[in-house]
Amino acid sequence: MLEGNKIKIRPIEEDDIDIICQWLNDEEINYWSSGAWPLNTLYSKDQIMEKYLDGPSDVYRYAILNEKNLIIGTIGFKEVNVPGRSATLFIVIGDKSYWGKGYGTDAIITFVRFLFTQWNFHRISLDTWDENLRAIRAYEKVGFKIEGCQREARYVLGTYHDAVLMGLLRDEFLILHGK
């Protein structure tokens, strides 16, 4: 189990699936995490369980826990590039009562430290959409830099939005946050 200042990170367990289903069926959570409302609501509980517990071997998903060891979100990585020592990060704080209180930032710092020091990655990438300013600010606090955008790459509630591409190098992170 990884431990940050406010959070813990552990593998997702079967008992987590019910709450993850609730998050995937919440319009506001989907709006900010991916803009995929209502598409995510089309998954059955069995499909969500398969995706989160038995999903592709190249996608790694973990639970974010609060101080009382209750799940408040998920974090993970995908698109591992072994020669380039890089991967793509994703995170969702599904419990809205923890939004804007530093839990996401703590989870990202804790998890990225793990990816850089234990997985020996050189670079971590991520993307969000242009109106998700709260997420962009959190990523920038961790040290991610905006590297570009993909024009009109996200379709959110009937409108196209730019995808904001961000990246972080190991040395930059260690200067800001140490080992």
From TrEMBL:
By its UniProt entry, which PANTHER family does this protein fall under?
Answer: GNAT-FAMILY ACETYLTRANSFERASE (PTHR43415:SF3), SPERMIDINE N(1)-ACETYLTRANSFERASE (PTHR43415)
* Domain named N-acetyltransferase: residues: 7-171
Class of enzymatic activity (EC top level): transferase
Q: Tell me which InterPro entries the record gives.
A: Acyl_CoA_acyltransferase, GNAT_dom
EC number(s) per entry: 2.3.1.57
Q: Which UniProt keywords apply?
A: Acyltransferase, Transferase
Source organism of the structure: Desulfosporosinus acididurans
Question: Mind listing the GO molecular function terms for this protein?
Answer: diamine N-acetyltransferase activity
What protein am I looking at? Spermidine N(1)-acetyltransferase
Family matches, as PROSITE patterns: GNAT
User: Entry's Pfam families?
Assistant: Acetyltransf_3 (PF13302)
Highest taxon in the source lineage:
Bacteria
